[in-house]
Specification:
single chain; about 70 residues; mainly alpha; two-stranded parallel ribbon; 2 strands
C-alpha cells in the first residue's frame, strides 16, 4: 500500500476489524473485479501513514504511561 498498490484482502475471521470492507473479497470473481476497478494510489499511501513506526512507538509509550 505504501507504494500505492490496492490491497485485495481475503475475508478471513477478523479481516473486517482491521481492513476497510471495500478491500475485502469472498470469491475469486470479487477479487478480480476489485483488482480491475478504479485505483486510488494516494488513498492507499495515506492509509498506511497511520501506521508509521514513530507514531506506533509513541502510541505504545502513551499506553504504557497511562497504565502506570
Amino acid at each position: 500500500m505504501r507504494k500505492g498498490l490496492k490491497p485485495i484482502i481475503h475475508n478471513w475471521i477478523g479481516a473486517k476489524d482491521i481492513w476497510d470492507s471495500k478491500w475485502i473479497w469472498n470469491t475469486i470473481d470479487q477479487a478480480v473485479r476489485m483488482f480491475l476497478d478504479d485505483y486510488h494510489s494516494e488513498e492507499y499511501r495515506e492509509y498506511v501513514l497511520r501506521y508509521d513506526k514513530k507514531t506506533e512507538i509513541k502510541n505504545a509509550d502513551d499506553l504504557i504511561f497511562e497504565l502506570l
